Amino acid sequence: MVQRQLPKPAELFELMQFKKPELDGRKRRLDAALTIYDLRTIAKRRTPKAAFDYTDGAAEGELSLARARQAFEDVEFHPGILKPAPTVDTSVEILGGPSALPFGIAPTGFTRLMQTEGEVAGAGAAAAAGIPFTLSTLGTTSIEGVKAANPHGRNWFQLYVMRDREISYELTRRAAAAGFDTLHFTVDTPVAGARLRDKRNGFSIPPQLTLGTIVNAIPRPWWWYDFLTTPKLEFASLSTTGGTVGELLDAAMDPTISYADLDVIRDLWPGKIVVKGVQNVEDSVRLKDAGVDGIVLSNHGGRQLDRAPIPFHLLPQVRKAVGDDFTVMIDTGIMNGADIVASVALGADFTLIGRAYLYGLMAGGRQGVDRTIAILRTEIERTMRLLGVSSLAELEPAHVTQLTRMVPLGESILVR
Ligand SMILES: Cc1cc2nc3c(=O)[nH]c(=O)nc-3n(C[C@H](O)[C@H](O)[C@H](O)COP(=O)(O)O)c2cc1C
């Protein structure tokens, strides 16, 4: 028999905890987001369909992106026990400078289309968190504007070698003059990938007002208010070169770029240079031998060649082939701090986040990007503690295995 009694008022009072309501709607919304996927849900609600799909989508059947995310989900961690880790150190030394966390912000084009604060929000949040920010050639804030938003932190510049080479050389000189310390030379876009969502949405820059976009705009008035009352959306660093957005975009893709271009850019660039978009072991070794400072294993977030290799799967073999003294970074599919920890364990020196940052931006501008970084930081720290490591250097391949649903059949696929 259960004994029953009348509750005492003092006991009831102890149970009642009324929190002060949060009056700042943006903060309330962002605080409720516990994962990057939560930020994505908010972003979808607040951003016009065409802009959200441009960000969220990938090429063709979007298999590369789905597989990359799946590969991270298939990680199995192997914790050590009874290894005290009262504090964790998440800082790393990368390309000659510090980063408070093992990830930086990846270059993305058209960023102010997602939310009007765009790159300024990204660079400001990166500065506050002590991590690097990368500006795209197709950025919507100028090189100098990013420098102003992150005057003391690390800025990196991503270069597309344009058909008119002089434009790229000029951008390289400008980024160097503004104190950017690393150049990312992107090599996975000889032609544009087929983004089918954009075709279906009739996506255009600037957005066209059709009946569909007007209906879609009704529940998203703030995005339109921002869009209509802030400076024109343009490729800010390229605007002085003339040409429409379409022409400039077309000119950014050149199927003739080669190692010869890499040599020219290296001579122009005083800082570190990394090649972004490397997708096999042979190219990784060749680039190391060519003397670049590092590589980014990436398939451009699945936005170029669909069914491209999963960068996370390439990582252990690339690390083995290039040895320990060469910088290997990775991106594509990172949605959780644990993905970053697993990458470091398998040999990555650093990682980049694309959409995770943009979901935060669309969910709440600068505060949203702060939230993205905070979520990833918490996940990284917690995963490290649960694994029993107190610094990133302690992570090793033995901490990670993979459930084998998607492992390539033979090495021959990766080593040509
Ligand atoms: C909307 C969007 C625009 C992008 N624009 C560029 C770009 O201009 N230059 C570039 O090198 N990579 C670009 N990328 C690729 C990212 O730098 C990065 O490789 C990719 O987003 C990583 O995958 P994730 O989004 O799953 O993190 C873009 C990615 C997205 C999502």
3D structure, described in words:
Strand 8, helix 15 (281-290) and strand 9 form a beta-alpha-beta unit. The mean pLDDT is 93. The protein has helices at residues 9-15, 25-31, 36-46, 49-56, 63-73, 111-114, 118-129, 143-149, 165-177, 196-201, 211-217, 221-229, 245-252, 259-268, 281-290, 311-322, 337-345, 355-387, and strands at 75-77, 92-94, 97-99, 103-105, 133-135, 155-159, 182-186, 272-278, 294-297, 327-330, 350-353, 400-402. It is built from 18 helices and twelve strands. It starts with 8 loop residues before the first helix and ends in a 14-residue tail after the last strand. The protein has an eight-stranded parallel beta sheet. Helix 2 (25-31) crosses helix 18, helix 7 (118-129) packs across helix 8 and helix 15 (281-290) crosses helix 16 (311-322). With 416 residues, it is an alpha/beta fold. The protein has one domain: Aldolase class I (TIM Barrel, Alpha-Beta Barrel). Helices cover 44% and strands 11% of the residues. The radius of gyration is 23 Å and the shape is globular.
Topology:
Layout: H1 9-15, H2 25-31, H3 36-46, H4 49-56, H5 63-73, E1 75-77, E2 92-94, E3 97-99, E4 103-105, H6 111-114, H7 118-129, E5 133-135, H8 143-149, E6 155-159, H9 165-177, E7 182-186, H10 196-201, H11 211-217, H12 221-229, H13 245-252, H14 259-268, E8 272-278, H15 281-290, E9 294-297, H16 311-322, E10 327-330, H17 337-345, E11 350-353, H18 355-387, E12 400-402
Parallel strand pairs: 4-11, 5-6, 6-7, 7-8, 8-9, 9-10, 10-11
Antiparallel strand pairs: 1-12, 2-3
Helix pairs in contact: 2-18, 3-18, 7-8, 7-18, 15-16, 17-18
